[in-house]
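Per reviewer request, we include the raw input and output of the structure prediction for the construct analysed in the revised manuscript.
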Amino acid sequence: METVIYDQINNMVKKFDLKTIILLSVVLLLTIVIYVALVIASRRIKAKKLIGEDIRRKHIYTTVFRVLKLLVVFGGIVAALQVLGVNMSWLVGGIGLLVILVVLAVKDSFQDMFAGFTILVDKYFTVGDAVEFDGKDGIVVSFTVRTTKIEFLDDRSVISIANRNITKIRKLTHLVDIDLPLSYEEDIMHVRAVLAEICEVISKIDGVEKCELKGAQEFASSAVIYKIRFFCEPYDRPDIRRAALKTIQDGLHEAGIKIPYQQIDIHSK
């Protein structure tokens, strides 16, 4: 290996004439110009304050510029070595081995970047979207190709998640369902009338777009499950859901309808 390197250095020294200097200068100048142009374009994109679809494009462009800058540097180095007469066969082999070692060392980072780029291309979510992660509702407050930051709506805590770990994330919609168990002994017509009135009250809660009674959802072993559905902004969901539950509780209490609970009968001989 030392002999090969020594021979390559001698070869470069022998070829170091005026023509080589000019070609080398042109290669370096082109490399610097292209790299600086990419840096300027990348900074301009990062400086823009965008929303929605534009944010998704911003992340894609930023990722593409990072890859292009690496390729420009690598291409400039290879072109410069070729001008100096360096035999590239051993260099390509060494670079290939180095790339393999780097990939193994930063495998998780590559997985994060691949997952992040997939999210961008699929338009799965972006900054400002309401999502559910690990059973909790939150807002995406920051996104890069490697990490996603979510601010949870219940306690306003912020968590940073590696993109390879967000396979369980779910984008929230305006739809909210409340399943309400009521006793089989209750009068069906009376229950429907009371629940319809409750839906009208819920629809008047600030932030609720509309509320409707969907009817019986399930005939469970100890109760009939009725479904009430309303629509609101995902960001307001926790507070509005609590207000809706209070409205349901008050409405059932005024109508004399009790919510059944599981009872265990113990018989002794």
